[in-house]
Amino acid sequence: MKSALLVFLGGGFGSVLRYLISKGLNNSAVTSMPYGTFTVNLLGSLFLGFLFGLSLKNPNINPGISMFFAVGFCGGFTTFSTFALENQLFLRTGDYFNFFIYMLSSIILGIFAIFLGLFFSRLT
């Protein structure tokens, strides 16, 4: 039950932060590119890679901390379903250029962000 509560709380914080970042970036953009989703997914990947790297260095990290941040916060903060919907909208409107740019850059840079987070965790 404690783990479920930690995931719930972390997910709530992550979701609110995702909303604020997405709202701010999407309202200020003059383009159809969904920079808010792109940004939170890359930041979430970076943070998750960092957390994973820390847990590899220190196997004694409290499991509750992992539940709160990795499962809860990162799960609520990043958003694959929104990413999928935005790509579907690009395809439906025939905007193949933005579809390919957004899809490929999100996947490639997301994986790179995991590696970068792992690298940063080694510096601590």
Automatic annotation (TrEMBL):
Pfam families, sorted: CRCB (PF02537)
Topology in membrane: Multi-pass membrane protein
Keyword Transmembrane in record: yes
Reactions catalysed according to its record: fluoride(in) = fluoride(out)
Subcellular location: Cell membrane
Regulation: Na(+) is not transported, but it plays an essential structural role and its presence is essential for fluoride channel function.
Binding site for Na(+): G75, T78
Membrane-spanning parts: 34-54, 66-85, 97-120
Main location class: membrane
InterPro entries tied to this protein: FluC (IPR003691)
Keyword entries, A-Z: Cell inner membrane, Cell membrane, Ion channel, Ion transport, Membrane, Metal-binding, Sodium, Transmembrane, Transmembrane helix, Transport
Transport listed as a keyword: yes
NCBIfam families: crcB
Job description of the protein: Fluoride-specific ion channel. Important for reducing fluoride concentration in the cell, thus reducing its toxicity.
Membership in a protein family: Belongs to the fluoride channel Fluc/FEX (TC 1.A.43) family.
Name of the featured protein: Fluoride-specific ion channel FluC
Species this chain originates from: Autumnicola musiva
Gene responsible for this protein: crcB
